[in-house]
Specification:
alpha/beta; Alkaline Phosphatase, subunit A; 2 domains; eight-stranded mixed sheet; five-stranded antiparallel sheet; about 25% strand; disordered N terminus
């Protein structure tokens, strides 16, 4: 048994097929039998399409100052626990960057992979940055639309100071000079991109939504302050999400390969004499995610969220600490065929990893990448399973794919 190469025609055909079958076929195994030798090439579709599925529209919602242990299982958060988590993929070990507090540097980190030395909640007048090393500059350069929706702003000026329950420290975009015209409240570009949250519903209905959307509720709805009528910050978050998330879920932007990322800015409380870094929540809703309550214990930070957004939109170079981060791709569907074993008598065994427990998966084979036949059907109770092809050597060439039933 030895490794071999594939002709360029086959590579091109495989690449095109992989793009068309992205939700269905995540890895192909190509076998070609040459006299008494079996040549095997394992092709992961990551080679052609990246580790993440083809997400088109991103919604990032940032909430305030609660550790995940306060949210998960809380009776004050029935919508999160009974509705969102069973639908979503989520993280158990997501943190703000180490020892990064208070709020403002964490919001800025989500856009730049660094806090630029900011360690307070000062207004843009003192903390503005003359740099293009941030996400929206890359989005603009790539021709990808973006918008920030901030609750309680007027939309008539760039919101450089507090108003009602809006605060600049929760709006990272107002700290970049190229967005604000260097703290110019009348700068047209900034006004056009930083909009009142109330406009989101109309943009969703009219299908005029940008591809990258950053959403900040006000100080009551994001759980920062205790407000009437609930006077409970966790319940305030839950009530706001219960009211607003369905609007996104019902939109064409979400249905057409959209993804919602819900996270918190930083941990709270004191551990070991220092402010806690978490874990904090990261909940992902998408038809392209594993969903069904899938979670992992991989260590993530806000750099992971930023890196994931850069990968979704194919942006480079990596921004700050995103270069060192683990992306969130494990939370999205990415079944992998691997660990091929020859078990004699013309049979081979393959292992599938990354399956969602309880979902039905089809193992299919083809000799030409055009016509596919079901070899095996599996509904695994774990994230991996194996299958055997008893007739692998009966064909001149053999392709395999795994497809999840939807």
């Amino acid at each position: 048994m030895r490794m071999t190469s594939i002709t360029q025609d086959w590579v091109s055909k495989l690449a095109n097929t992989t793009k068309n079958e992205m939700r269905e076929s995540l890895v192909f195994i190509f076998l070609k039998f040459l006299s008494v030798l079996t040549a095997i090439v394992i092709l992961n579709c990551k080679t052609f399409a990246g580790e993440l599925p083809p997400i088109r529209t991103v919604f990032v919602i940032v909430l305030e100052n609660h550790n995940w242990s306060e949210i998960k299982g809380s009776t004050k958060a029935p919508f999160i626990n009974r509705t969102l988590l069973p639908l979503s993929s989520y993280c158990e070990q997501y943190f703000n960057p180490p020892k990064l507090h208070p709020s403002e540097p964490n919001y800025i980190w989500l856009q730049a992979g660094t806090n630029f030395g900011i360690i307070n909640d000062g207004n843009p007048s003192s903390n503005h940055q003359n740099t293009t090393n941030h996400l929206t500059d890359q989005l603009d350069y790539a021709g990808i639309s973006w918008k920030s929706y901030q609750e309680d702003i007027s939309g008539m000026v760039v919101p450089l100071t507090s108003m009602d329950n809006y605060v600049p420290r929760h709006d990272p975009f107002v700290f970049f000079d190229d967005i604000t015209g260097t703290n110019d409240p009348n700068y047209i570009y900034g006004i056009a991109h930083i909009r009142p949250y109330e406009e989101l519903a109309g943009d969703l209905t009219n299908n005029s939504i940008a591809r990258y959307n950053f959403i900040t509720p006000n100080l009551c709805d994001d759980g920062h302050s205790s407000c009437a009528p609930q006077y409970n910050s966790i319940q305030q978050i839950d009530d706001w999400l219960a009211s607003e998330i369905p609007k996104i879920l019902d939109s064409a932007a979400y249905s057409n390969n959209g993804a919602i990322f819900i996270t918190w800015d930083e941990g709270e409380g004191v551990e070991g004499g220092a402010v806690s870094d978490g874990p904090i929540g990261m909940i992902i809703l998408s038809s392209l995610a594993r969903g069904n309550g899938y979670f992992n214990n991989i260590h993530y930070t806000h750099s992971s969220c930023l890196r994931t957004v850069q990968e979704i939109f194919n942006l480079s170079p990596w921004l700050g600490d995103a270069a060192n981060a683990t992306d969130l791709s494990d939370l999205f569907s990415q079944m992998t065929l691997k660990s091929l074993r020859h078990i004699g008598s013309g049979s081979i065994s393959l292992n599938v990893t990354g399956a969602v427990p309880g979902r039905t998966n089809y193992i299919e084979t083809s000799t030409n990448l055009a016509l596919w036949n079901i070899l095996s059907t599996n509904s695994s109770s774990s994230n991996s399973f194996s299958f055997t092809d008893m007739n692998a050597t009966n064909y001149g060439q053999r392709f395999y794919r795994v497809r999840e039933a939807r």
